[in-house]
Write the structure tokens for this entry.
Amino acid sequence: MFVLIGWTLALSCIFGVFVVHGGNIAVVLQALPFELVTIGGAALGAFVANNQPKVLKATLRSLTTCFKGSKYSKTRYLELMALLYDILQKARKEGLIAIEHDVDAPAESALFQRYPVVSADPHAVEFITDYLRMMVSGNLNAHEIESLMDSEIETHHAEAHAPAVAMTRVANGLPAFGIVAAVLGVVNTMGSVGQPPAVLGAMIGSALVGTFLGILLSYAIFEPLAGLMEQKADEATKELQCIKTTLLASMQGYAPQVAMEFGRKVLYSTERPSFSELENHVKGRK
């Protein structure tokens, strides 16, 4: 919703001021379809040529999320922390072997099913269960597991940022493609030097629409999308860091309540529940 609001505001101000100052919008509209095909086609071709198929698919998926609200809300984090608390509390009371079934078959675990929002996210569930499984096995210490977690989070971070990087490259190339379209328009105009000045003026104006359109698409459309993709990728990474910090605190001997505090402090302030909110939520789920 905010993406559409931002685009509407930007385009309204740009074209509105142009018309108010006496600009002939008909010249822009007449040249727009041809310039758009030239610039858009060049940008699309460069985008396909510059990225592997997996990045192309990931970018298309990321584009759809740009028009949706963030799923990483305070409600989700409350549920995540409550799930981790229940798991760690069960392991503390009954031993790590007690959570083995929950870890091996989370889809069948009553503990995981109590938290449907987190359980519906395969990547979050996999991250939690993979490292709980290592904790159950007892073959790795906290430092070894932390190193492995950091490597996985770094890989996830790079993959999640690939669409944003690809979109940024497109945004950076659009002004140049606009110049290409404008140069072609000027070349076309030079072939009509015998025409009246009014006709030549309109043709030059149409050619300059290419430069204008390339810059507009870059900084008003694609660059904001790239920035939004990057922010959403950072949110996904932050959740994994929260899980990591909580589990490592538990491995180092802290009680589940204290381990939750370690994890809670990692979260962004805008979505981080307060101590009392988290405590009341956990007590309410018992």
User: Anything to note?
Assistant: The CA atoms of residues 54 and 162 lie 10 Å apart.
